[in-house]
């Protein structure tokens, strides 16, 4: 699967189209600082939480999240998706799913009824994890048919999305880093999210 950032015209977000965040004036330095800070932390959960914190801070995102592919663990104990028989909520395979393990910004919880577990192939994030869609960054959420909660999108004023797979050493999706923003996202910012996903992949490999 191609792990390529694609960003459409920057356009106007909910608050206009501001200049790129000053942190991205030297993105390599910001990412080097992040990796240095991550080396001082113990535990994958804390490290992934630092990455989503950084995504919000660097890119001005409304919220950012990391899901990891893991064995299905709530299929018989109340998982919302296990009750559905039709898309987009339907869980086609109970062997593996996405587990939400880090969330920063507006939403910091990881135990919500809908998104704490996401079936592979469901919603935008699940399609990225299943390899159905490549990672991407784009503006204009309401134009994408795989975002189903349009009232929620409009209520929060969300305008852009970036989501990239966290790849295993073999090149298979092992998770997803995704963020939503009220502002337009540029190609450079999309590449920044892609780099954060690469950092998350290195953390997942080395612990």
So how many helices? 5
CATH hierarchy, class of the domain at 35-67 and 101-108 and 124-206: Alpha Beta
Helical/strand content category: alpha+beta
CATH level 3 topology of the domain at 35-67 and 101-108 and 124-206: Beta-Lactamase
Q: Can you tell me the CATH superfamily of the domain at 35-67 and 101-108 and 124-206?
A: GAF domain
Largest sheet: 6 strands, antiparallel
Number of strands: 6
CATH architecture of the domain at 35-67 and 101-108 and 124-206, please? 2-Layer Sandwich
Taken from the alpha-carbon principal axes, the silhouette is: globular
pLDDT under 50 segments (min length 5)? 1-18
Structure description:
This protein has helices at 27-39, 44-59, 123-129, 150-156, 187-206, and strands spanning 63-71, 96-105, 117-119, 136-139, 160-167, 173-181. The chain has a domain at 35-67 and 101-108 and 124-206: Beta-Lactamase, CATH 3.30.450.40. The protein is an alpha+beta fold and 207 residues long. Helix 2 (44-59) packs antiparallel against helix 5. It has 5 helices and 6 strands. It is globular and about 45 Å long. The protein is 30% helix and 21% strand. A 6-stranded antiparallel sheet has the order 3-2-1-6-5-4, sandwiched between helices.
Topology:
Layout: H1 27-39, H2 44-59, E1 63-71, E2 96-105, E3 117-119, H3 123-129, E4 136-139, H4 150-156, E5 160-167, E6 173-181, H5 187-206
Antiparallel strand pairs: 1-2, 1-6, 2-3, 4-5, 5-6
